[in-house]
């Protein structure tokens, strides 16, 4: 898939593209990233990209025209039609179901706002989806775009070395529960001992223990997720055990 990032800080794209799963997904040709700077599409000596808000108040609002021209240039770089996603605190909350849907798109254009925001008319005309990565305010959409890029890149076929690991993560495992705890060597450590069942070699027992841990953690930490998880009768019994 191809992801274009419209941002006043295109260096940011190089930063996220160079590391970890995203870097590897790029090397393997699974995702292609390109940054686009609206300032390159701004007119005049000052290449102005923002102005004061009508109605007064602090901060600056990003102008329609540089953003529109920049998005048009990004769209024209590839014939596949792109979904335009605007990252903002006003957006719908990002979750793993949304990430999965985005990961299936052939193309995304991620629009990163700065200052107080973007002229609402540009959003109405160009944006397909507005997404927030949480109920807090960042100084721009770039970190949120990085979150989307990472989450989407690791779901591309072949991006992860262990094909299983995506499926077993929190939220992907059997209907949106938190992940179970994990342990590695040594078995005995001054910080504690590895639960015995994990060394039993009994795969059915191990699976049952993991499911029970996942259910218990979700119940304790994120009860809101349990309501949507659609628990089976066996799950309810595990949870009550
Ligand atoms: N831009 C600023 N804050 C944001 C947030 N919480 N999510 C997405 N984009 C943002």
UniProtKB/TrEMBL annotation:
GO molecular function: tRNA (guanine(37)-N1)-methyltransferase activity
Reaction equation(s) it catalyzes: guanosine(37) in tRNA + S-adenosyl-L-methionine = N(1)-methylguanosine(37) in tRNA + S-adenosyl-L-homocysteine + H(+)
CDD domains in the cross-refs: TrmD-like
Gene3D superfamilies found in the cross-reference section: 3.40.1280.10, tRNA(m1g37)methyltransferase, domain 2
Binding-site positions, S-adenosyl-L-methionine: 113, 133-138
Keyword vocabulary terms for this entry: Cytoplasm, Methyltransferase, S-adenosyl-L-methionine, Transferase, tRNA processing
Annotated compartments: Cytoplasm
Known EC number: 2.1.1.228
GO cellular component terms, A-Z: cytosol
GO BP annotations, alphabetical order: tRNA N1-guanine methylation
Enzyme class: transferase
InterPro entries linked to this entry: Alpha/beta_knot_MTases (IPR029028), tRNA_m1G_MeTrfase_C_sf (IPR023148), tRNA_m1G_MeTrfase_TrmD (IPR002649), tRNA_m1G_MTases_N (IPR029026), tRNA_MeTrfase_TRMD/TRM10 (IPR016009)
Stretches assigned to the tRNA methyltransferase TRMD/TRM10-type domain: 1-227
Subunit description: Homodimer.
NCBIfam families: PRK00026.1, trmD
Function per UniProt: Specifically methylates guanosine-37 in various tRNAs.
Family: Belongs to the RNA methyltransferase TrmD family.
Protein name according to UniProt: tRNA (guanine-N(1)-)-methyltransferase
């Amino acid at each position: 898939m191809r992801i274009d990032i419209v941002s006043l800080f295109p260096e940011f794209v190089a930063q996220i593209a160079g590391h970890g799963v995203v870097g590897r997904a790029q090397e393997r040709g699974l995702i292609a990233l390109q940054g686009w700077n609206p300032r390159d599409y701004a007119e005049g000596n000052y290449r102005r990209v923002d102005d004061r808000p009508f109605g007064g108040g602090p901060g600056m609002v990003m102008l329609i025209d540089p953003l529109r021209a920049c998005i048009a240039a990004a769209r024209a770089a590839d014939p596949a039609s792109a979904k335009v996603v605007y990252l903002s605190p006003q957006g719908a909350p990002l979750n793993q179901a949304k990430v999965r849907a985005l990961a299936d798109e052939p193309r995304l254009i991620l629009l990163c706002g700065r200052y107080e925001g973007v002229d609402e008319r540009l959003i109405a005309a160009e944006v397909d989806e507005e997404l927030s990565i949480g109920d807090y305010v960042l100084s721009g959409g770039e970190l949120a775009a990085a979150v989307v890029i990472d989450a989407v890149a690791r779901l591309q076929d072949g991006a992860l070395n262990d094909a299983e690991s995506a499926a077993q993560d929190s939220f992907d495992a059997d209907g949106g529960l938190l992940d179970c705890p994990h342990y590695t060597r040594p078995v005995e450590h001054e910080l504690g001992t590895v639960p015995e069942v994990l060394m039993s070699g009994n795969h059915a027992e191990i699976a049952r223990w993991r499911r029970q841990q996942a259910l218990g953690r979700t119940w304790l930490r994120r009860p809101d997720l349990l309501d949507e998880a659609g628990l089976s009768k066996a799950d309810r019994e595990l949870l009550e055990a």
